[in-house]
## 1
Amino acid sequence: MNKRTLLAIALLASPLAAADGQWALGQSTLTYHVSHPLHESEGVSHAARGKGVCQAGQCDFLIAAPVKSFDSGDSNRDLHMLQVTRGAEFPLISVRTRVPDIAVGAATVHADLEIQFVGQTVVYKQVEFQETVQGNTIKLTGTIPAKVADFKIVPPSLLAMPIKNEMPVRVDMTWQKQ
Amino acid sequence: MTCVCLCAVSFPSLAQTADSPAQTPATAPAGNSQAPSLGDLGFPTAQTKGSLLDQARLDRRSHMLKIHQKLGLITLAPLIATLIASNGATPGHTNASGVTTGGGSTSSRDLHAGLGIATAGLYLTTASFAIFAPKISGTKTRGPILVHKILACIHGPGMILTPILGAMAYNQINSGQKVHGIASAHGAVAAITAISYGAAMLSVSIKF
């Protein structure tokens, strides 16, 4: 291997090396939305924690939040939510994703999300997120098109009317490069 | 009575905890050793360990409250019927010459009394499922359920007082007396009870 080849490898490798590193989740807001014929409700959690590791052109992210950290403003509803999602048995909801490092910082990223919740693992393909880069931080927003049936949750009902199957989760997170 | 619901002593907390064996693995996905694991996120162990006993407590609570909800709806039927039947249970008017005119018949009063007793019985059964549902420690009551519980403090005593006052009024009418004393409050107490009961149902059904 001559000097010219080594120089070329070093030049090609340097951007990847620069992209390697870790990300930590700063502020976050996760909001689930459920619909019932009589009313709509939302539960919000600010208790998510997350970490991202970028290496060799790939970034692996893990985000998790305690199920009981979601607050809908109604303690009774929150306890029912905790029961139907088996939140005492499976206290965390976790999301894993792997994206190419070039996607980190792009305006839009499509990610395959592996969600563990209620003892089930469900993959949502190509979920779109918007990214806004501000210095060493990235603000990420998007909506996960979760459905009650995907996680085999028995839909809670009120006055014999169950909630709708759609349970979108709005994501608003700020990641900090370490 | 239903104030007990608000102030009910929580069931003794379960000392031992059965850990769930099926909690999310804290390891990185297979074949990807660089990926972060749940252990990297620094959650306290208490937040990551599942408890089958706690889940069973939640399941039991929800089960009992579902029965509470169903029985509450069922109780509405005899309650409405009792209110309708009350039209035939009114005492007659005695004029100056001592002749009683108008008022309901004895059979109508019996029907009203029977429906009232059925309502009170169903109501107490309904309330007991809420009162004895396991309490979840560390939960602060917030939202519409707080209104529901406050209203229960009105219709709870009302549902006990109404049949007592009704029985007093019934006896007074049957013995040829004019309804007097505290028994004369039977109608007003019943009305307040019925309104607060309906409002309590609406408070958890419709988002205001």
## 2
Amino acid sequence: MTPSAVRSPARLSAGVKGHRTLLTSGGLVVLLAVFAVFPLVFPNPLATTYGFDALIFIAAASAWNIFSGYSGYLSLGHAVFFGSGMYTVAIGAKDWKLSGDTVFALLPLAAIVAAAVAVPVGLVALRVRRHTFVVITIAIFFIFQLMAFNFSFTGGTVGIDAPILNWAPGTYNDPFYYLAMVIAAVTLALSWLIRRSRFGLHLRAIRDDEDRARSLGVHPMRAKLGALVLSALITGLLGGLWYYFIAAVHPQSAFDPLFDLQLALMGFFGGLGTVFGPALGALILEPVQQWLTVQFTNDYLSEILLGAVFLLVIIFLPRGVLPTLGERITSLRSRSRDRSVPVTTADGGAVAEGAAPDGAPPDGTPPDMAAPGTSTASAPRPAGRREGTPS
Amino acid sequence: MTAELRTEGISKAFGGVQALDDCSLTVAEGSITGLIGPNGSGKTTLFNIMTGYERPDSGAVYLAGQDITGESAQKVFGRGLGRTFQLTRIFPRLTLLENMLVAAKPSRERGSLLARAGGAADRRHARELLEFTGIDQYASALAGTLSYGQRKLLELATVLAADPAIVLLDEPAGGVNPSLIQTIAARIRDLNARGTTFLIVEHNMEFVMGLCHQVTVLDYGTVVAAGPPEIISTDPRVLDAYLGASLDDEPSPDGADA
């Protein structure tokens, strides 16, 4: 009897899950198609610049989320990796006298350098937790900005200009756009894979209770450092691409505190620790911010507005758009289920009995053997409070 | 799958407080051993030292004859020594099934780092354990939605996920209703019959005396008595440590020395 009792709810939830997965993957295919044809529909360089910006931030916010969202260690120093990627490509192109398309060959190096930077940064910063960790990441960020200002190989305050690309102005943005799109898609796929993997489970266990995780055999430093290095790898790659797109690097733009705040804001806005939340946050917030910057020539005003958005999100959507939406949907669904209580109960009972593999009549079973089945069918389920789809 | 756990002359001080003072005890292979003593007698500190959360100032911990003193918590768990915490700890934002899979060992047949957490065998084992503790109907609910007693059961189930040889339980019956206490005791007995060794810290004397084969009494960081429950429950030193019987006529340090 017991197998049937266990199987029936499992089968039901598997059905719901399968449906949801189908919906999600269908939506993603549509979204990918929209992004793929966007430059064809809007060939205007201004539009593709907006698109490129959004894609860079979709990838960067998702990469940030792989570390900060899953592990709960909020990094406000990811610009360190972005800037390291920018300077790697800039210095490499200058020293090795590369020009034109060949500069793109430096992008993997940008990723590797950023990942290498993340190792000592992580070994230092990941020794402390919570607020202390946030403060340390900010401190490390300023150390890197100061170094960029003062070292000679970074070009100091003057920075480094990029070699010129002799591409047709009309389609100049397209290769950048599509490269960013591929990176964003791969990052999201990776994020999805990690979240459901053992590695991701360990990260989320660390987020919930690091000391308890240790008592269950999780190696926190290994998991956290692995996530940080992977996150830095992607962020550095994006930095390298960004450098060649804007064709120059300066300490203020490479190591920009606003970049750190933006990633955090996008993560919180969309849903920290969900697979697609930070990407959604980037997709909404990045164009809004670009638009604000264009609307108000006073740079500070757009920053003040960004700060205001951050406050509103923290107050009204503390868990982010995706988890809140998911919660609303589940609570609506369970409310409509509550209205038809007798029907559902009867259904549930019928399902549990119908699933019995041997087809034994319920009254024919000995009471002690029937007990587990009945208790499962009638047990109160915390359905209304179930997680609002963290995926 | 079982082993002996032994400490030899463990001492540990926090500032000026001597939490453990030359503490030696043995948890026999296959036993259910109780560890009792008044608040502040060093029980939890001893747990923390045994499981790699604290380093002793002196002394050693042996698991199955091997010195494991000072090893990290995750390594100790890998050796087959599991524990629960006095203040029940679960992962509230993971589902019950995910809670169970945290402790699952990496499956050998699927080496990839990005392979899905928990192979079919791990998931089956996890469901069996949830069933064993009677909370399997909530397998896909978030652990944070469970009641306190259910959390205790989940914590016990997660520790069991990796089939530890020895399980250290810190107040498994604390704050739990009487019928659930019976359930927990029955589960511990079942597991012990299958070969798991237990060391249990508990203030509920009925629970300890009814369940344990051996009871060790700790006072001021030292073992003051050890033996079968029926002898321990009448030992004057134990009554003294617990009830402060000698408080009226003599100062308690003398009583502890006696």
